[in-house]
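User: Before I run my own analysis I want an independent prediction to cross-check against. Here's the chain; please return only the structure tokens and, at the end, one sentence I can use as a sanity check.
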Amino acid sequence: MKGGEEEFKYKQCLILRSDLKLSCGKMCAQAAHASIGAYEKASLADKKEWLREGQKKVALKAPSERALYELKVVAEMHGVPVSLIVDAGYTEIPPGTVTALGIGPAKAEIINKITGHLPLL
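Assistant: Structure tokens:
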């Protein structure tokens, strides 16, 4: 077994923009928004399996807003639930700033095709 990867057939990826200078707390909040938003759009079957397996989540980074939009389109083409997060602008960044993207939960083999090239956060 390679680092336990075979244990998880489902996962969720949380992708944050690396070009924004966000505090650790702000990044965590944006990732949480992305996680919940994408989870709410997942099928009941995918939700159940992901929860049963332990809710694997992977935090990744993308270089720009454009990269998040491109990932969103690819995920939607694969039928994977997504949630693009646009910040309200109350704290660190201007209103309307796109900060994060949640992808899944869905089958890991599908998500890996979409996000496999991205570095860990």
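Sanity check: The chain has one domain: 5-115.
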